[in-house]
Amino acid sequence: LALYLVSTMSRTSLFVPRYMYLALPGAALIACAMARLFIPARLWKPIAACLGCTVLLFGGHWTRIWPPHQNSDWRTASQRLRDWSGNADVPVICPSPFIEARVPVWSPNYPVSGFLYSHLAVYPITGHVYPFPFESSPEAAAFARQLTAGTLAKAGRFAVFGGDRSVRFWRDWFAAQPEFSAWSNEVLGLYGDVELVGFIRKLSRTP
User: Which residue, 67, 126, 52, 70, is CA-closest to 94?
Assistant: First the structure.
């Protein structure tokens, strides 16, 4: 109830599904306590066995020997970025995957070795990383315009690497800038909810 009231009054939803996982044991205990009122004791074991078999049957990943345990494959995505950029100091626009990455905690000068970009410490990438916030903001847009007019336009190519929603937003944003009207962009890979997009200046054709 407290979370609901704070979410309603502040208009900032705190009901992120993964934050509710801590309540699952309590929810299971309450469900069992309620079921005890209606289910005879002699049926508990058969019902528990049926429930367990049902969960394995419909919740198991039977088509894969080693199914993924999370939906963010940073390892493969970072390897793909290293392969694409090589050893070159390619600019990499890197939105943080953490919701805490917003003003005033985030700024263009936030160190990429900080918490908001901790995934880069575990799965390092090549290139020059430019940290972006979790969501768009006036500060992020100003930072993006500054990079567009200088660093990115001169680089010849750059990447956008991070959560799929953030990457798609910044892909559309950069593609709409007149400086990149003669550039091509493509999705280099989608790894769960991690996406990698590459921008490359098109070679001019001589008649």
Answer: 126
